[in-house]
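name: query_chain
kind: protein
chains: 1
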Amino acid sequence: MKLTFRWYGESDCIPVQYLRQIPNMSGVVTACYDVPVGEVWSVESLKKLKSIANGVGLEMEVIESIPVSEDIKLGKPTRDKLIENYCENIRRCASVGVKCVCYNFMPVFDWLRTEMYHQNEDGSNSLAYSWADFQKIDPHNLHLPGWDESYSQDELQGLLEAYSHFSHDDLFNNLVYFLERIIPVCDEVGVKMAIHPDDPPWDIFGLPRIVSNEADLDRMFAAVPSKNNGVTLCTGSFGAGRHNDVVHMVGKYSKEGRLHFLHLRNVKWTDDKDSFVEVGHCTKDGSLDMAAVVDAAVVNGFDGYVRPDHGRNIWGEDAKPGYGLFDRALGCAYINGLFEMAEKKNK
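structure:
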């Protein structure tokens, strides 16, 4: 495996040289975050990011992400031009050595939590989702943690209206339309596309979600069979849904050669509904067996990219929720240990 770390470029509060000091760290996971969705990235911007990473001894082989425009998801007449731009971005990423692109196909919201700073018993804080709190949200007057700065009320209501009569099949068919056009480019330039699961893995506000379970992935792979059509298997996103057997899924898609990127984090289910809180990476802290996840990957030949996913804010760090340094660095140490033991055991 190649251990990586998400880094938001020069605006990130974490200096890139700190990442190099994490044992076994191979590279950054980044993107051109300042480019509006749907536009073509400049090769110069990509080269600059790569140069910064290479300058401290790190690679830039994974992009997370090239965002997919809502017009593509909705199947609007503008989608063909936007898909052409997307294909050009894949080519430009490949030209600077990128080998894997993480993306998602979630309508409007590509993650959702009801708390950004849930207070844990140990004094840390983390992201959390409360089923009871979600029921109190007025879909006609949405104010969501982490999203109020992304959409105006008019923009948000317009998007929700655009999807109001959209079915799961409608969204799936538009995903296939998108993949049938970008995957041949990936085959040509040697880039693996790795779709991120729905987060959380169920419908919200009437918006269809189509990457929420094993059956969803199997349907997508059957529709577009190229092995460059793969998954970013986020244990926290799939694991928030108790209907998902994450260990089985990791083993299955590793064996099939479709697990291109592995996001490792733990979640703790907190009631008998859909509530969960993001916790430390260790198995004992949450509801997922992280050791079994890593073992399933190793046994089935996984050799892709790994990153610690969301961490808590600990030790007084006041960072972007989920993306501080300290807890994710601890997660890296734990991940290194799990992989070393699994690899030695399964030689």
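note: Residues 183 and 226 are 7 Å apart (CA to CA).
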